[in-house]
Amino acid sequence: MQKLELLYEGKGKKLYKTEDENLLVAEFKDDLTAFNAEKRGNEEGKGALNCKISTQLFALLEEHDIKTHLVKTLDDTTQLVKKVKIIPIEVVVRNIATGSLSKRLGIADGTVLPFTLVEFYYKDDSLGDPILNDEHCLMLDLVKSESDLEELKRLGRQINVIMKKFFEERRLKLVDFKVEFGVDKEGNILLSDEISPDSCRFWDMDTNEKMDKDRFRQGLGNVKVAYEEVLKRILEKQ
Ligand code: UDP
């Protein structure tokens, strides 16, 4: 399937039209941004690593009956995906407090949360992706009904259960992650976008070393080495 004109360019990916109006090509970029793009970088080969990692994780979730937009991988950096209308809500799922949660509520970094926390953020860069409650989501018409919000929470939790176990078996703690969903032309809610060290926090179970985008954001170096290690661990037990 050939990629045709560019439809959209985001921070981590470009989306192209194809001859089939129901399918798009997603191309993973090497760019890295931190804190609403105020710090930018580029890590050669990162796009290919994220494409491989995300493909593996979407396949894992499909095996557990989570419906996704992924059709197939085309080459190192591109995937063929179903065209969906993205729900402009970032669903963040957390097992351990860190990042904006620690900052906002004063919970010590690294605290294991008493239960899995699901949060919604408004996918709007110009507003700085503010946190939303259910009523905000309904007031802004981000979803059709309250039951869609319940479905997003249920899917976020289910994805967490599957991935947390998968990464524990690979000596990585799944600290938190962000997922996005889209609606296809039949009205199904599909997991979309990507799941990668750009959108998840992984800490090594033995050393607590950060193995994700925080290496870039916090200037820890060896970003690509960490992403390669995550991919290696994903692949080694299959
Ligand atoms: N996240 C993301 N994209 C965003 C914001 C957050 O992928 O635009 C992910 C982030 O990588 C982390 C989780 O969502 O795994 C929670 O992020 P947090 O709210 O702590 O914000 P941060 O401290 O990353 O700014």
Structural notes for this entry:
The structure is a single chain. This protein is an alpha+beta fold. The protein folds into 2 domains: 6-82, Phosphorylase Kinase, domain 1; 85-220, ATP-grasp fold, B domain (D-amino Acid Aminotransferase, Chain A, domain 1, 2-Layer Sandwich). The protein has helices spanning 46-63, 99-105, 134-139, 146-168, 214-217, 223-236; strands at 6-9, 13-17, 23-28, 31-34, 39-42, 70-75, 78-82, 85-86, 89-96, 112-122, 131-132, 172-183, 189-192, 200-204. Strands 8, 9, 10, 11, 12, 13 and 14 form a 7-stranded antiparallel β-sheet that branches. Strands 1-2-3-7-6 form a 5-stranded antiparallel β-sheet. A hairpin with a 5-residue loop joins strand 2 (13-17) and strand 3 (23-28). It is globular, with a radius of gyration of 17 Å. The two termini are 28 Å apart. 35% of the residues are buried. It binds uridine-5'-diphosphate (UDP). Residues 90, 92, 99-101, 129, 176-178, 199-201, 213 line the site of uridine-5'-diphosphate. The site of uridine-5'-diphosphate has 13 residues, from strand 9, helix 2, strand 12 and strand 14.
